[in-house]
Known about the structure:
This protein is of the alpha+beta class and 452 residues long. The protein folds into three domains: 5-114 and 226-401, 3-hydroxy-3-methylglutaryl-coenzyme A Reductase, Chain A, domain 2, CATH 3.90.770.10; 117-219, Alpha-Beta Plaits (2-Layer Sandwich), CATH 3.30.70.420; 407-451, Orthogonal Bundle (Helicase, Ruva Protein, domain 3). It is built from 19 helices and ten strands. A hairpin with a 2-residue loop joins strand 1 and strand 2. Helix 5 (92-104) crosses helix 16 (377-401) and helix 12 packs antiparallel against helix 13. The chain is globular. The protein binds (R)-mevalonate (MEV).
Amino acid sequence: MGGDEKMARTSAMSGFHTLSPSERLRIVSEFAQLDDEEAKLLAKAGGLDMDTANRMIENVIGETQLPMGIATNFLINGKDYLVPMCIEEPSVVAAASKAAKLAREAGGFRASATDPIMIGQIQIVDVADCAKAAEAVMQLKDELMHMLDNIDPILAKYGGGPRDLRARVLKTDGGCMLIAELLVDVRDAMGANAINTMLETIAPRIVEITGGRSLLRIISNLATERMARAEAVWKKNVLGEDAIRIIGRLSGEEPARPSAALSREAFGEQAINDVLRAFWFADHDQHRATTHNKGTMNGIDAVTIATGNDWRAVESGAHSYAAISGRYRSLTKYWKDRDGNLHGSIELPLAVATIGGATRTHPIAKIAQKILGVKSSQELAQVIASVGLAQNFAALYAMATTGLQAGHMKLHASNLAVMAGAKGEQIDKVVQQMIAEKNISAARAKEILEGM
Ligand code: MEV
């Protein structure tokens, strides 16, 4: 690992996984300039006191906890991020870090996010002529929008507020109904409260206009106007070199030397072609697509949870968007460029906030945001989309090259080596020997280390 100064500027931290949790915390604290209080809260694990918990939900009797891991190597739009991830599943943090490391070789991730516009829906029932009612609402759109002029001065101060209103007819088994949709730029909030207040304000006037009855007034979690996108390139030679190293390590042998027959390029090409096949499988088969997207959501949820955001909203929006064409598909896409390098992209609605709700009341969520150093909900969405893409690529790449089980065994062996006290290069040596001997255990790790 480099000097402390270097640590503060880059998220590329080789050997980070070999450190103890307190050593890692020290490095992250430096990177994100956490104060002692914040570092102590993280180390304490949990960080949520009973009083705060009791104010968050009803009938509180305790708390549960998830480990927070830090994904390294993320370079997004030229900025380095250490990414806090809260998840119970092993390998996820390591896989995201690895995919980000491989993508870094081609400049990391390029990500973007639309304005944070949420959609609120008003359902009007018992309308005699739905088409006419929709027309009438559209004719009075200006008046309805003016009703919201001063409704949320704080949101307006930060550049947000109502943006548009539309109305459409919905034909259902229970007859036609009118659906009015209000589009609101909610800036850095999730937006549910602000939108619901606005819907309540205009619903009575829409009822007057249409002669119907307003039933549901609620935000939509399919946030198609609040989209995040990310893209990355995994170079053929980078993947080839990595595949050769991993395959060599897993077989317990010296890494295979690039040769004419088994060149870096050939390994890379094979890996890329097989990742593409894995993607096509998902994109055309719903059973596979569900698992494929679950892998993507491993990354997306872990950061969403770490930052105190509503992961059920993000989950339902993501899966709904995956089926928006009428067929449930992959949230990611992959293709090969002329030079044979692999391109990956992701696009999904991401309603995540940096203010409001648990993002501010949960002390650990606040610290997670500080570690990320994001300045807006859009920047947070860009990071989350990049992590989702990295996570999905990592799963496909592992399955298309060495298989997941091999990776899990390596991780397990590596954990045992670290627990036995191995440091730096010793870890790899202990891991390789245990794998070669097909004897992966805490006792063997200790013996090998003692024999060094
Ligand atoms: C496991 O949590 C996620 C994977 O099943 C994703 C995938 O199959 O693509 C490995």
